[in-house]
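Before relying on records like the one below, remember that each one covers exactly one chain. Contacts with other chains, cofactors or solvent are not represented anywhere in the record.
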Amino acid sequence: MSGTQEPLVEVAQLAAELDHADPPTLLDVRWRLTGPPGRDDYLAGHLPGAVFIDLDTALCGPPGTGGRHPLPDPAALQAALRAAGVRAGHPVVVYDGGDGLAAARAWWTLRWAGHGQVRLLHGGYPAWVASSQPVRTDAPVPTPGDVVVRPGGLPVLDAGQTAALAAEADTVLLDVRAAPRYRGEVEPIDPVAGHVPGAVNLPAGEYVGPDGRFLADVLHERFAAAGVTDARAVGAYCGSGVTAAQAVLALHLAGRADAALYVGSWSNWVADPSRPVASGPTSGR
């Protein structure tokens, strides 16, 4: 197969595909920002044939000044994907515990790495179980894949490009964190509260439900209200580049496949004390 697939797959469609002689490669990327590791959930039950891959250690680089979830080293990512059975030109489906965050970052990472055949299971593992589909508790050992990581498949912003995107009149930078964090009223994770000057707040709950399902009926409306139009370049950031990857997927669904991700996000922005910080509300652009 070649080209780029639609970013979402529903349970019934995936179940049918898994009955084929050469089904898609399944990656279980269940993850929590805090709490038990996702592998525990995987071992308790997962989709048949799925291989667990860790968001923090396999799909991202080590945390530091580049942010809490920076870009992975391409060679390390390639090794991890090959170990998980990812093959060049062969479809991959990623899923998580239902909120869609880790799966969206996995989708984004594979697309950035040049693998176009990747989809997210809409609704994740809970949707699969709710449909009475089979689960397994074994941990299959996949045949090593031959995927080749070629960075650049999706656009990435660094801090300077992010500042420029926020400053220009004909561009939009979306901050998709919760409104109190954007306004600088609270900051539970990073050392500095506030937002990138010029960024527009569009909390993730405006375009994706708590079950991780994208609000298809309102995507265009919500993005347009935040100033996203066909004529404006658009980028997104969050705390560490996970929720914002979900925003980029939502923008793809809304027709903006050119949307860029500030991977380092707020955790990278505030690592340099010389970068400006804004607080308070914004009326949009």
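DSSP finds eleven helices and ten strands in the chain.
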